[in-house]
Design a protein that fits this description.
single chain; 336 residues; mainly alpha; two-stranded antiparallel sheet
Length: 336
Amino acid sequence: MDPKQAAAAAPISYWIYFSIGVLVLLVLDLSVFHRKAHRISAREALAWTGFWVSLAAGFNLWVFYRFGSLKAQEFLTGYLMEEALSVDNIFVFVLIFRYFRVKPEYQHRILFWGILGAIVMRLLFILIGGALIKAFHPVLYVFGAFLLFTGFKLLTHKDEIEVDPSRNWALRVFKRHFRTTEEFQGPRFLVKRDGLTYATPLFLVLVVVETTDVVFAVDSVPAIFGVTEDTFIVFTSNIFAILGLRSIYFLLAGMMDAFRFLKVGLSLVLIFIGIKMLAEIFGEEYKVSITVSLGVVAGILVTSILASIFRPPPPPPPLPEENGNGPPSGTPSVAE
């Protein structure tokens, strides 16, 4: 690790204060602002997105004041990258909720507990990854090769993401060992019947969401270690990105198809970070500065979003009609 980075490492008290602050915000979110289950409107989602982004920006200013511009740039780069990578999470959440037919008013509750579990899992991943890098620094090159492979695979993979929760291993194990109900029981995860505890389908959805996040963490955690080896910056930028994921989900869930070039942008970001990590094998003169990294990551993401806006997907072809009249082929008529 760079001596300058090591010298600026955050004391344990900062970890404790940050964790307490996150828990307080989550408790207020569930017990005050979203105490009653309701459908999240686009306006409300936009307001919450603005709140979480503003909070992350404020924390970034504190990082600048406390640790200097280098750490502030590392945080901003990591935050932007993690927020962009979370788009894949949003797409998968949409498919999971459709599969289980989860009502919109219950989706926030699932995402709340799912994100709480994700915070714990990311902390474990980051601490383990940081310990491995400290004990054996060339582990970074393994991370870089993995990101390079993942980026090229994402770039060349033409098929849409397929999610089949019925094949989720954790779901199969859970259903084999625990009692479950067939119908949703409102916003409840567990219910009592004849003195026995049953898990509702809402709890099964939570199981799938939690295990899915493990898969995404395998990509995102190595990626941010390519930006910085400071575990405090890695953790805080990850958590701020996760905290804003819920509101962004409700904001973008209905128009994911519009960002058709974002997947290309995400794959290029992973490829760039992978190359950046592997380039250090050849010496310090090949090390990419954090300023360049921030510019490249932000430039790729902005370009992919603008390309999606100015070159929207073509409209689907019109469905054929029978004899020029009546409903499209394969669509039942009113009489049917």
